[in-house]
Amino acid sequence: MDYINTIGRRKTSVARLYMNAGKGEFKVNDRELSDYFPAEILQLIVKQPLEATGESGKYDFKINVTGGGLTGQAEAIRLAISRALVEQDEEHKPTLKKEGFLTRDPRMVERKKYGRRKARRRFQFSKR
Question: Are 78 and 85 a contacting pair, CB within 8 Å?
């Protein structure tokens, strides 16, 4: 098996993933997964597709992730891993689709409008 290259996005985060057969090692921006995501919940989010398909410990992942915050980056990595697993074995698709791991979350921050304090929040109105 050669490298499988996929991409995942969430908010402004972009994760580029390279997957190959291995022992289950994660390298995120040349750091260990537990070093890059110190919060246990974020590590759990990243590993969800592997747990759902039972593929834990079979592949090594090299991930380059940019933009956004840690939660957005973790969810972008989750989408990239899900896409890589489907590319590796098409039988994983129904399981991952049912869990919602193959759906790109389209929600983005709404832009600020002129004449407003934020995207929708108006300045305080004063009658007098």
Answer: no
CA–CA distance, 3 with 22 (Å, rounded to integer): 11
83 neighbors 95 (Cβ within 8 angstroms):
no
Domain that holds residue 41: 4-99
Pairing of strands 59-66, 31-32: unpaired
Is 108 within the bounds of a domain? no
Rounded to 5 degrees, φ, ψ at 81 are -65, -40
Cα 105 from Cα 24, distance rounded (Å) = 26
Q: Is the separation of the CB atoms in 78 and 48 below 8 Å?
A: yes
> What pLDDT, in 10s, does the model give residues 9-33?
999 999 999 999 999 999 999 999 9
Q: Which of 97, 92, 85, 96 is nearest to 21 (CA)?
A: 85
